[in-house]
Backbone:
């Protein structure tokens, strides 16, 4: 049981903290996180470890053969970079959730039956599990609406869902 | 790192050599800086054009743009960019998410479940 964030997701979290909207780091140490060596490379490249000093994820190795076999099984995966492929490979063999803000990765995961969530949906799940307040989630949705980070239709759906929680 | 090779005339090389010396860098580094400076505005436009055409998604667009994530999202806002994600995917994402007990992924929860298994045996 592990959460697998991608680089876009973690970068989005950093953006929200830097803009003083919401700091997810307080929730960080409570969860079991995992990354692959390819994601680790990206995080180092974008200096994300400096922002997540207490981020102590499990590093889950993936072999080249595993990636090659996966691309044969799911040819559409050849369009993804190695970091995304490695996340999908881990999610297929572990009880895991991919957390991504990249539309292509989200679509691919859902199409092949992997549980994946974007940041707003992850927030709704946090509210459902009493790990985030409704007000905090509402403020985040308002921020995304104000800055056009998602479409109006998507935001309307998530707001409606928040009301039902 | 990758390498690009290209040919220039003797005169052109001479000019590049003089300009590089003036900047105090090697010819290769001088040319690299010039090329990257030149393509910077193009790559941002290219990233958002491909995104608007649905040919790439957020991550690829961000990487092509060469911006930091923060800068990229500011540009996203300025250009009113959108990622084309079908309704059915968003519905399924939400449907899946709401059936998941996220507490199973908490460290404490895992430790407690391990303890109870140990106790049983």
Residues:
């Amino acid at each position: 049981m592990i959460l697998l964030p991608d680089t876009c997701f973690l970068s989005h979290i950093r953006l929200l903290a830097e803009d003083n909207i919401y700091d997810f780091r307080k929730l960080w140490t409570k969860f079991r996180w995992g990354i692959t060596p390819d994601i680790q490379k990206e995080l180092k490249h974008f200096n994300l470890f400096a922002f997540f000093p207490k981020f102590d994820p499990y590093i889950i190795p993936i072999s080249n053969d595993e990636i090659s076999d996966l691309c044969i099984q799911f040819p559409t995966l050849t369009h993804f970079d190695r970091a995304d492929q490695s996340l999908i490979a881990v999610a297929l063999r572990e009880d895991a959730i991919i957390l991504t803000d990249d539309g292509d990765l989200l679509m691919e995961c859902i199409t092949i039956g992997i549980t994946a969530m974007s940041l707003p949906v992850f927030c709704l799940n946090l509210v459902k599990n009493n790990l985030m307040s409704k007000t905090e989630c509402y403020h985040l949705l308002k921020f995304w609406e104000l800055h056009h980070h998602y479409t109006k239709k998507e935001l309307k759906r998530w707001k409606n869902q928040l009301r039902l929680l | 790192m990758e390498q690009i090779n290209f040919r220039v005339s003797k005169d052109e090389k001479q000019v590049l050599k003089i300009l590089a010396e003036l900047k105090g860098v090697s010819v290769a580094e001088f040319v690299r800086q010039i090329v990257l400076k030149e393509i910077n505005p193009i790559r941002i436009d290219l990233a958002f054009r491909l995104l608007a055409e649905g040919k790439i998604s957020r991550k690829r667009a961000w990487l092509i743009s060469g911006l930091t994530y923060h800068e990229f999202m500011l540009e996203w806002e300025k250009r009113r960019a959108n990622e084309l994600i079908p309704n059915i995917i968003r519905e399924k994402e939400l449907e899946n998410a709401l059936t998941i007990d996220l507490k199973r992924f908490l460290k404490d929860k895992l430790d407690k479940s391990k303890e109870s298994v140990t106790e049983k045996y």
